[in-house]
Write a structure and sequence with these properties.
This protein has 102 residues and is α/β, with parallel strands linked by helices. The protein has a single domain, classed as 3-Layer(aba) Sandwich (Rossmann fold). The protein has 3 helices and 3 strands, in the order E-H-E-H-E-H. Strands 1-2-3 form a 3-stranded parallel β-sheet, with helices on one face. Strand 1, helix 1 and strand 2 form a beta-alpha-beta unit. The longest helix has 14 residues.
Length: 102
């Protein structure tokens, strides 16, 4: 049985916006879905609440280039981050522990 490939990433608030036109410039999150030799099963995209519109746009564009990838947007509050912790939700921490065991 093939292990699933899960990627955790952070929204690039400058580069992921693209240019004019939006597809006219390299966008790191989108380029991950364009790799012919890497099929990502699930991509967890973290972003701050004030970048919701950009996160939704990136999700839409990512689905165009990699429709087989499940993309999950997760709000990450900088206030919840402490030294040594990214402030992940309990459910995500549980998921991470599960993947660690696989």
């Amino acid at each position: 049985m093939k292990k699933k490939i899960v990627v955790l990433g952070f929204l690039g608030t400058n580069l992921d916006q693209g240019g004019k036109p939006r597809w006219g410039r390299w966008r790191p999150t989108i380029s991950l879905g364009q790799q012919d030799d890497l099929l990502v099963d699930r991509f967890e995209l973290f972003y701050e609440k004030n970048f919701l519109d950009l996160a939704q746009l990136v999700q839409k564009d990512f689905q165009q280039v990699s429709p087989e990838t499940e993309l999950i947007n997760r709000i990450q509050s900088p206030r919840s981050c402490t030294k040594g912790s990214l402030g992940f939700s309990d459910s995500l921490q549980r998921d991470l522990r599960q993947f660690k065991r696989l």
